[in-house]
Structures are given as structure tokens and as C-alpha cells.
Amino acid sequence: MSELTGNCLVAQSGGPTAVINASVAGVVSEALNHECIEEIYGGLNGVHGILNEELIDLAEESQQNIRGLRHTPASALGTCRFKLRRDEDFARILEVFEKHNIRFFFYVGGNDSQDTANKISKLAQSRGHEMRAIGIPKTIDNDLVVTDHCPGYGSVIKSICTTVREMALDHEAMGQHDLVSILEVMGRNAGWIAAGASLAKGNKENPDLAPHLIYLPEVPFTTEKYLEDVRRVLSRNKHCFVVVGEGLVDPDGNYVSTSSGATDAFGHAQLGGCGDFLQRTVEENLGIKARSAKLGISQRAAAHCSSQADNDEAYMAGEAAVRAAISGETDKMVTLIRGDEDQYSCETGLAPLEDIANGVKMLPQEWINEDGVSMNYQFFKYASPLIKGEVEVPYEHGLPQYTRLSKNRVQKQLGDHKFE
Amino acid sequence: MSELTGNCLVAQSGGPTAVINASVAGVVSEALNHECIEEIYGGLNGVHGILNEELIDLAEESQQNIRGLRHTPASALGTCRFKLRRDEDFARILEVFEKHNIRFFFYVGGNDSQDTANKISKLAQSRGHEMRAIGIPKTIDNDLVVTDHCPGYGSVIKSICTTVREMALDHEAMGQHDLVSILEVMGRNAGWIAAGASLAKGNKENPDLAPHLIYLPEVPFTTEKYLEDVRRVLSRNKHCFVVVGEGLVDPDGNYVSTSSGATDAFGHAQLGGCGDFLQRTVEENLGIKARSAKLGISQRAAAHCSSQADNDEAYMAGEAAVRAAISGETDKMVTLIRGDEDQYSCETGLAPLEDIANGVKMLPQEWINEDGVSMNYQFFKYASPLIKGEVEVPYEHGLPQYTRLSKNRVQKQLGDHKFE
Question: Best interface-test mutation with B: which of A297, A312, A344, A407 has the largest number of B CBs within 10 A?
Fold first, then answer.
């Protein structure tokens, strides 16, 4: 047992997922078990809110609310894409931690967030504020290194596969003319999400089942090859179902049909529009009717068809983070470790935050078939277990009932923070 | 009991829905109860397939398959957007009916399809081929006249409301900056689908809940009013959720951001792109970040979150069609009639096909609030019961299992048909 006693703070960062709140529920439930944790605080809108001293008392939330978090999509604490850069921002975070006696800090996020958690912890150590910082992985992109996979990934691909299956049936029914259907999905640098759509086939490498073609950021895109691929599929089927990752690039590394050069706070390009580009390319070059759909953020928020396996692991990662901190670990992120057996199993581990921060795990090239537009058995073996099981969401008046926290504020003890 | 004895034929037409197969299941189940119906045939791809004599034996399908149709989206028999125009096409249809002794014809579709069924029946009467033609309503657009509502509508709006609720939570979580989120939904001429998104609020006229703004084809669109609406919402909330029907028009009646002048086989304009237009308009005029999503055909195919009420009524309409034909009715469409009581109830009726054909039921202007971008209690009262209940879809390996028919072909007895 740790001798460290004080308050804990959990916050969320980056793009939400269908299960990031399950991790917060795991943190809160486990924290209640340990007497060395006095107050259980939530930070609103990640480090941006912590800078403003916007803390809520999570122990005051009803049990119903904390249970409801397990099936509620998006970030119930609010999130941010704000990057801590200035020394005065880091110092302010530490000041908030000191004033509120934060000794256990849990940050649920992707690699930028793990980097932030690491820097805060290092600063605390250098200033003599004893604390433990544990990261909890979260990203639909599945691109964190070290961990076998990331909470959030299984649910986003389950939602996409469900949609692919349903759209494909609709598509097949319109059997009168050739038809190309294009679904644009998320995935900034790595094709994990687009690749995951291949599970809609039902674990089989059946070329007649949708999706027929998957375009990944890992495979440089050329219009010639694309038109050839579509022609090949249409020579067998009257319909061709295309899934494309938003981060598709040409052989020079330029995004295909990036609508503008806009970037977000982390300098990442804002993507979108490659689905429309693929639609126009088919219509203009092959004279064949094409349709495109862009699920946008609905794909990552689709808790109503999220994966129970993913949800359970997200919750487990939250619990594991608390246990790790209590046992004296710090500057680590919880990882998911897959068992060696044929039957899928998953347990948690720990890895240094600095190993996670700013690393990116690409989809292994050897999991992509030679045609460049489909996935092989290694990918199926990897991804299939992650979409298993259906989360039961309560319904009322025909719609899913999601939880909004009461958000009882912790009294501020500092003046306003000056943002740059 | 009818003295007419012979085979029955059921076919599907127009855009699929999440519950159109439930109507076919209703036809097949009810047809099995009546000895005057000898064979139960399905026509593939609507009248287009019937012209080609592409018939399948539905009684040969396994019971599992027919049961599976009740939760399988899209048109299991295939569909078409082919319009019968030429005399030789009508004559050919009749020839197929005569050769295969089709005495009971059930056509599941929208107003174009009911028009087609009516014309076929009238021709049969003039040629002395005794038969009964009964239409079964189907359209997500909910724009058929006479019937209180259409099977398919409840499910598409339930799916959209689920997505609105989930996207809105995601949206709210990104609380750092103002954000406008735009969801483009289907709806060619009438705003029933876009209006249905208002149910995501949970039956309450709460201006703080998404969707905040709904743009309907019934309300002429101007950029000035739109920007004013967005500014008003953002003065209360950091997020503004916009739902827009694809058939949005400006005060001159031109589609907003129609990408091309292309039309389908019925002369209807091919729409899309108004969501992107609304996104760009906000970004360029207000300098506020905006996102858009276009659910495309996924919204009408989303059987995994379809409405049990809608599904039950689609099935009931199929059964009612058979019973009507058996009892001697013809040239009628099954309608849905809402009970007078406060507690929602629904039974079937019949209306002449010619009353349905080519009529369009617009969203009543008096159900739209004065602001032009929200719906009042009359709409909520009308639409709320239609999304009630969740259809249980079987899952395997984490994904919904849908049914594909075996499609055992009925032997052709005629030569090939020459299309124009």
C-alpha cells in the first residue's frame, strides 16, 4: 500500500470515443475502494479546464450517473485539443494540483495526452510535489505504441462494420445498374479504422462480400490503380463497395482531396473529402453511378452499437490505472496485453509514458494483401475479438438514454488564468 | 372467401427501408394461410425483373429465412427505379402474369410504385385477366397521401435521432471553442425526415438540446436567416447542431447546392451536398469551426436500431394486403390509420391506388414553429409513437446477422424481353 495520501483527479483529452467514459467509471469505482484517495475530482475539458481550475466532485455524482457513464459516448468531463506549451501553463497546472492536493492524476487520451501527463509529472517531481501520474489509453485511431490495441478502436470498427453490412444490402438491392458506394471513415495517419471495415465480411476473405475495396493511408493512392480496382470488382459484381480512410495520400505524400490546408492545434492537417473525390472520379472516368457517405463523428460516438469487449477493457484500464498509482507506479500508461492462447484474452500492463508519447503505431504492411485493398487473415485474427459482444444501452421513448453528469463544482482557490 | 384461385406475386420497388422486408414477410406468412393462393412467388427487382420473368419461389425459402426478413434491411427481393412507360412493357407484364397464373399481386413501394400497380391492374381488367392488385406502402419519405404514416419512416427517424443524440454529446464535449455540426439527411420534397430529427430532444421543446436548427424543404432557405439562426444559438450554447434535409430550396425554388442537374429515371433531381454548403457558409461568414456528416443510405438501412412499432406495422401491412385481396378487394393500397385515443394505436385500412399515385403529402406548415427551424408539439405528438420499441437483431461474431434469400428461380416460360 502506498503511503501517499491525497486527492485524485481524472480528466479526458482529445477526440471522444464510445467508451472513454467507461474508463472514467473504472477510475471512480476503483478509487472508492482506497482510503488513501480522499476526494475524487474530475477535470473539465482536459488540461484546458484544469488551467481554469474547473474541477468537479465525482464522488458526489449519483451511483446511477457513474453506472450510466459505462454506456454513454463522448467525453462526459468534456475534452480539449489544447496543447500545453508555455512554462507558465505547466506551472499553473502544478499550482492547481498543489492547491487541491492532487496526488493521483489519471489522464485518458492518445499520444499527445500521454506526453502532456508525462511533462506535468516530471515538473511535479522537479518541484517536490509528490504525485503519481498514470495514463489511460484512448483513441479510435488505435495508433498508440506498446499497447496491443486501444480502447475505443473496437467500438468504432464495430459501428462501421454494422453500417457497411447494412449499406451493402441496400446497395445490392439496387441491382438494375452498376453502382459504386463509397464510405469515408476516420483515421488520420494510420489505416486501422479503414482496415477494420474488412470485418464486415464476417471473417472470411470472400471477394464477393462488402467491402470490396479498402483504401488505406499506408498504401499510396493513384487514380489509375483505383479505376482498375473498381473495374475488376464490377466485372464480378454489379455493386462495388469502397471504404476509404480520410488520411489517404498520393505517392508524393499529399492528402487526396484535402479541402484546405487548415491544421488543428497540434499542427495536424484537417482532413475530409476523399470520399467525394473517389465518387467523382468513378462518375467522371467510368460513367458509372456512385454514391458517397461520410459518417463523420457519428462513427466514434455510436455507443448504441458499441463493443462489449471494448467497453469492458476501457473500464478495466481505468481500474488498473488507480491500482497502479496506489501501488506506487507513476509516469506509466496502462497497456492492453493480449494472451498467447488461441482463445482471446486481455489483461493490463504498464509502459513508460515517454515510450508512448508521440509514437505512432502503423498498420503492419504484412497484414495488407498484395492487392493493396484488402486485409489478410493476420488482421482478421487481430481485430475480430475486439468487436465481440453488444453493450446494452437503456432506451426510453424509443431512444438511447445517455448520462449527463451533475458536475458539482469544486470551489476555486486561485485567480483566473491568463491564456496566451 | 374469394372464388379466385391462383398464384400470388410480391415485389418491391424504389428505395429500400429498414422494414420493407418485414412487409414481404407479412405477405408470405399470411398467404400460407389461404388455400386459394397456390404458389407464392417473389419478383426480383420490381417490375424490371418481372419484365425479365425473374421470379422466385418464396414458399421454398426456409422458415428461418422468412423470419430473418423481419429484421433484415434493404430489399431482399431486389428493387428498381425503372418506370413502365411503353405499351409493350405493360403488355409484357401481363403476359408474365398470365403465363404464371398470377392472380394476386402485391407491390411494396411509394407513390410511383402504386401508380404502376394501378396501371397494371387496369390493363389486366381490360384484357380479361382476372386479378387483384394491392399496394403496400413503403417510404422513408413519409410522403404518401391518405395513410397516416408510412412503414419505413419511424425507423429512419429513430436511426437519425440516435445519431443526433450521440453526435451532440461528442459535440458538447469539445467545449473549448464554438462549433457548428451539420447533419445532412434524406428527404426529397418533404421535410418529414429532417423534422423527425427533432425527436432527439426527447419530446421536449428545449432550445438547449440538439438539434438546435432544422432546415426543411418546406421553408425557403436564405443564407442571411441561416447565419442569424446560428448566431442566436451560439449566443446561448458553445455548440450548434444543425439538421438539414437534402431537398432544401431557396426562395426561387432552386435546390441549395445541388451538385449537378442530374435526374433519376423518374425525373427527380439527384440531390446532395447542402450539408457541405452549410458548413462552408458558417466557416466563411462567421469564422467558426464547422463539421458536416452525410449519413447517405446508412440512415435508411439501419435495421440494427430500427423501430419495433414501425417493423410491426410494416409486417401488419403485408398481412392486411393479402387478406384484402382474398376478400375481393383490388386496386387499393393498405393504409395505416391512427386511433382516436390518447394512447397510440394503429390499424390498417384501404384506399384507392389512384388516390395515392403521384400525390405527395407535405409536412403541415402549422406543425413548424414560427422560427421556421423547429417543430411544435403537434409534430411531436404525431411522430413520437412511431419510433417506439427496439427491434431485436441477432448478432454473431459481434455483427448483426441479416438474411439473404435462397432465391430458387421459377422456370421461365417466355423468351427474353427487349428493353428500349
Answer: A297
